[in-house]
Amino acid sequence: MSKKTTGVLNDQKGAALVIALIMIVVLTLIGLASTFTSTFEIRLSGNKRGATDAFYSSESGVEIVQSNVGYFSYTGNGSTPALNPNPANAVISLTRELNADGTPREDAPRGLGISATNFEFNHHHVQSTGQDQLDVSLVPSQCILESKVVRLLPTLQGGSQ
């Protein structure tokens, strides 16, 4: 009987099939893991692209306001400039900074190195909101940039001649 038992254990006719099935399962698991990893990386890069899009959209709104002096000659405290070249569709808010008593702030900014007697200073606050330009995600990226702008206006010195 011991010869018959050892004969069955020494028979290796199905070993190749078992090893092949184990290798197929291992390769399938490796393939699934790489698929999930690449899907995650695609989503991550899409989110990064959306955030970058939103940032540059918001940045373009600030640059548009800063490049046009006409936006700073408004009356009142709050204004939303009617932007002509705004391809990024940034939502822009322009307000004049006020002192504690409600008067417009007109003091010289620190560290400017110029005479405060020859200029008038208008302090403005620009807030630009940009969004992702592609509507492919459920929650589009949004970026809000705030910038402080001081407009220098020369004052008339002495009498006119």
Summary keywords:
single chain, 4 strands, alpha+beta, 2 helices, four-stranded antiparallel sheet, rod-shaped, 161 residues
Structure description:
The chain has one domain (13-154). The protein is of the alpha+beta class and 161 residues long. It is built from two helices and four strands, in the order H-H-E-E-E-E. Strands 1-2-3-4 form a four-stranded antiparallel beta sheet. The longest helix has 53 residues, at 15-67. The mean pLDDT is 79.
Describe what is shown at a glance.
By secondary structure, the chain is α+β, with helices and mostly antiparallel strands. Helices cover 39% and strands 21% of the residues. It has one domain.
Note poorly predicted spans: none
β-strand amount: 15-25%
Computed CA radius of gyration, to the nearest angstrom: 34 Å
Number of domains: 1
Structural class: alpha+beta
Number of helical segments with 4 or more residues: 2
Strand order of the largest sheet: 1-2-3-4
> Secondary-structure element sequence?
HHEEEE
Share of helical residues: 25-40%
User: How many E strands?
Assistant: 4
Q: What is the overall silhouette? A: rod-shaped
What's the story with the biggest beta sheet? Answer: 4 strands, antiparallel
Separation, N- and C-terminal Cα atoms: 131 Å
Average pLDDT rating: 79
